[in-house]
What we know:
This protein has helices spanning 42-46, 50-62, 79-91, 113-121, 129-138, 150-156, 170-174, 183-187, 206-216, 228-234; strands spanning 8-11, 17-20, 35-40, 64-72, 94-96, 104-107, 143-146, 163-164, 197-200, 222-224. The chain is an alpha/beta fold. A hairpin with a 7-residue loop joins strand 5 (94-96) and strand 6 (104-107).
Amino acid sequence: xxxxxxxxxxxxxxxxxxxxxxxxxxxxxxxxxxxxxxxxxxxxxxxxxxxxxxxxxxxxxxxxxxxxxxxxxxxxxxxxxxxxxxxxxxxxxxxxxxxxxxxxxxxxxxxxxxxxxxxxxxxxxxxxxxxxxxxxxxxxxxxxxxxxxxxxxxxxxxxxxxxxxxxxxxxxxxxxxxxxxxxxxxxxxxxxxxxxxxxxxxxxxxxxxxxxxxxxxxxxxxxxxxxxxxxxxxxxxxxxxxxxxxxxxxxxxxxxxxx
Length: 259
């Protein structure tokens, strides 16, 4: 249930899991499992802004298996509110169930980006911010690959010691046999198929797909940061101010001639 007053996981007598997500985490939580049904509580829905409602529906849909049931609790029955709810649901692949007051939906059976993420994450041992901080402390060879845009890095800073590798060129710069790999990695003893590589984006979504791609290239310990850079910063962990960022050379796109 998204928007419960508590955050806990219980197990029903049939062995299925029930996870309650607190209101503060309902739009951002990234759980390890997906579910056959999910509920957004009426209390949280009715007190949320339009943008927050969309985020609530998106995150609920992301945690549903294909065909899963979604119930959006809401006190209002006015046409505008119902239409707004249906619009949020439709944008996230949730199809209305007839005869349920436009509050019950079924997740589409079609493959969505949420399915791609779930598949990628099934092969990753993802790290929470505190776990990454510990890993960096005990493993000096662990490398953080920051795929965020230059504007995000300039606006919010970076993780100390991270290297900037734009998402659009990540595979080419890391793969030693791409023909366009980054010489800087080789200078550091790269590539090492067993090296710890942690991909970091803003929120921890595209980084999962990127880390899975690196695993497919043979880097078996590639993974990503749960919640991305925003979670790292929110946890109060060290951040290099934008003006002090010295992480990585300018991007060279595949096919571009090197100077």
